[in-house]
Amino acid sequence: MKIIVTGARGQLGSQIVEDINKGYSEIGELPEVIKNAEVLGIDVEELDISDLNKVKEFISIQRPDVVINPAAYTNVDGCESNEQLAYQINALGARNLAIACEGIGAKLLHISTDYVFSGEGNVPLKEYELPAPQSVYGKTKLAGEEFVREFCSKYYIVRTSWLYGYNGKNFVYTIMKAAQERGVLKVVNDQKGNPTNAEDLIHHLLKIILTDEYGIYHCTGEGECSWYDFASKIVEYGNIECIVNPCTSDEFPSPTKRPTYSSLDNMMLRVTVGNEVREWQKALKEFIKRQNRTY
Questions:
Q1: Which domain of life is it from (predicted)?
Q2: I want to staple 164 with a disulfide (CB 3.0 to 4.6 A). Which of 140, 172, 180, 252 is the partner?
Q3: Residue 211: pLDDT above 70?
């Protein structure tokens, strides 16, 4: 099996490549066919996914069995001020990979986001719920989903949220650094979602691609919380002396309308490959124990 991973210098893409090469995730051993797979990690330096002709040529030459696409323009505020770039990467990039994969009969696993939903309500969202994005980031990611569904017959779309991993920048590292430096933090308590450890997500991505269970998946940490709850547990598990105070979103004005409630339900996992995703507190505790950054 040959697997291409886009965005391989990003937080998720780099960790996918590492886990395949190791042959296991924190949840457990990976299937033998994954352990023995040839994995090729690429980023914009190797391939600009917004260029259709280059994507078709590259995929045609490499002829992977599966393409995993975490590549995205994820700066949500940046998307608001640079809509064209967001569309090129999040929408056209997904379209181009879908067209190229279809051309050689390859599978495409595309990473998407909770931002495709309105962010309203109070019940975890299942895969069949109607999207209604409120931000440019969410709208361009939804456009990418629609292109994948239109142009590739062997697709998996996996939506995740509040992702953190060992590589790159994320909320956990930001809070740990700020807590150590300041000793007092204010974190919003009126936005709820699912913190997701990249190890949990990756383990399930690599199970999904071995099946013909095509369609849309949600894959997020089990259980929901607010950003304040999340930050409080980061400080607690990190044994950092810091006071975390709750506040409202109004105290941190943003050009982007962020979801007030975006918890996702991993229903498709439960009824297909099985849901082994850990409770978010357990996964976070393990992450903080294993991470080795100093601030």
A1: Bacteria
A2: 172
A3: yes
